[in-house]
Amino acid sequence: MMMVSAIIRPERLESVKKALEEAGIFGMTVTEVQGRGDQKGIQLQYRGRTMNVDLIPKTKVDIVVPDDKVRETVAIVSNAARTGKVGDGRIFVLPVASSFRIRTGEEIP
Amino acid sequence: MALDSGTTAWLLVSTALVMLMTPAVGFFYGGLVRKKNLISMIALSFVVFALVSIQWIIIGYTLAFGDDVGGIIGSLDHIGLSGIGVESGDAPYPPLLFVAFQLVFATVTMAIVTSGFAERVRLSAFVLFALLWTTLVYDPLAHWAWGGGWAMVFGSLDFAGGTVVHISSGFAALAIALVIGKRIGFGEYTMEPCNIPMTLLGAGLLWFGWFGFNAGSALAANGLAASAFIVTNTSAAAGALAWLFASWVHGKPSSLGMVSGAIAGLVAITPAAGYVTVPASLVIGLVAGVLCYACMLWRIRKGLDESLDAWSIHGMGGLWGAIATGIFAAAAVNGYSGLIEGNVQQFVANAVGALSALVYAFVVTYILALVIDRTVGLRVSEEEEYVGLDISQHGERV
Question: How far apart are CA B306 and CA B214, in angstroms?
Fold first, then answer.
């Protein structure tokens, strides 16, 4: 079991959700976040000065999937979130030790 | 004529009521944009208030209400408010108070126009545009309708600004949206309102302020003001319910739809407020709610990014209101008869007044926006737009 944690452009969320639904993946946790990548944010040029916008608002989508679904999930999210421009985001894959359903207390394999 | 303290007091209060409408437009629009543009959208209305306040006392008032020059514009006799004092002339209130009352009409009109610029305008270009627009579009239209210009002489009725305020700002916003272009990503992904409660707050303040707008336009504390007050409220309520139920048929009855309908009702009754009966105001509001909702749906279908809907609510609601004034005007209210009482001339006069305001506002705005876009540049860069105008234009965050 793995957690696919994708940091994406907020405006791509609907596309990502739709693409995952089409693949039968529904469960997700969505969080509004701020961050920066290798470009150190966005630099806005003004006459005679530069303004650096350090932290850019992004959306984080966490999806827990079986090990054999990780590659497919990453591909779906990447394709749906991609614009081709700097700032499309990152995807991290983390191991998930276990998962429990609160209502029943059962452990989900 | 001696000063009347009751009338003067009511006009002072009305001026303050209408002042509140300018920031209220900012709150209304602010809630409808994305979070990264919330400050910008509210700030535009405040910028407008400050800017037009100064423009009005220097040149706006005299262009609108100075002695008539060829039916088109006022003279420069009162430049810098020269010759305007507190001693009563031919009205029961101080002339300076009338200046202030008309000032807040000019500011709220320009605030409505900001709809067309939403989320993509450069502040510096906007300041230049606002100054020129209020001088070249608002001031002449105010003169035509209220300052002794040709529309007034022709007999076109506009009690509180259906043509001057709403048709002009609504069609101006449409022209701007066409010149400045769609926001990046418009039609590709959803751009949801960031704060509906703020929009509701703005709508509530607008409704409140509108009593000063319409009942204050009686320019007296009398029965006509009372009549304007109740028809204003009736039309707003009817518009709110009409849009609410029309949108319910299509899906959920949204609070945003309800207040949009209220504004549509308020817009439509504005030119008619001093001329129509309460039952007529009910019809005017109901039609406004449904009509403006249909116009919004048409705009969406056409892919027009005038997404705060100044055109569909103010432009089209104002057009309906101006025509409705020519239909429903009742002699019992204020001595003017409309089509229903057999006066075809009144209907024609109002239709001509409305259409001329529409064409003038749209054409002049389009040219003005185009010239500023080609010279100064109306629109922010792609990166600035992506980051949002709060940071890129103001260096601030919510």
Answer: 27
User: Is the pLDDT confidence value at A51 over 90?
Assistant: no
Query: What secondary structure letter does DSSP report for B183?
Result: P
CA distance B228 to B217: 8
Q: Does residue B268 sit in helix, strand or coil?
A: helix
Could you tell me whether strands A49-53 and A56-65 are parallel, antiparallel, or unpaired per DSSP bridges? unpaired
Beta strands in chain B (DSSP E): 68-69, 73-74
**Residue B87: which pLDDT band, with cuts at 50, 70 and 90?**
confident
Tell me whether B37 touches chain A (CB under 8 Å): no
Residue A42 has its nearest CB partner, among B190, B383, B395, at B383
Longest dimension (CA), chain B: 63
Chain A nearest-CA residue for B192? A11
* Contact assignment for A14 to B395 by CB distance below 8 Å: no
- Select from A14, A42, A87 the Cβ nearest to the Cβ of B190: A14
For A3-15, what is each residue's pLDDT tens digit?
Answer: 999 999 999 999 9
B70–chain A Cβ distance below 8 A for any pair:
no
Q: What is the DSSP letter of B93?
A: S
A2-8 sheet: strands from edge to edge: A29-35, A56-65, A2-8, A89-95
Picking from A12, A51, A57, the nearest residue to B36 by CB comes out as A57
**Rounded Cα distance, B307 and B301, in Å:** 12
B-chain residues near A56 (CB < 8 A) = 387
Q: Closest Cα partner for B11 from B290, B252, B212?
A: B212
Confidence of residue A47 (pLDDT cuts 50, 70, 90): low
Q: What is the pLDDT of residue A37?
A: 84
Query: Long-range pairs for B370-374 at CB < 8 Å and ≥24 separation?
Result: B370/B179, B372/B125, B372/B128, B372/B129, B372/B132, B373/B125, B373/B179, B373/B180
Taking the C-alpha atoms of residue B117 and residue B56, their distance in angstroms, rounded to an integer, is 22
Whether B90 has its CB under 8 Å from any CB of chain A: the answer is no
CB B26 within 8 Å of CB B43: yes
Size of interface A-B (CB pairs under 8 A): 25
Contact A51 B36 (CB under 8 A): no
Put simply, the answer to whether B189 touches A11 (Cβ < 8 Å) is yes
The pLDDT > 90 percentage for chain A reads 75
Q: What is the pLDDT at residue A28? A: 97
* Residues in A touching B395 (Cβ below 8 Å): 51
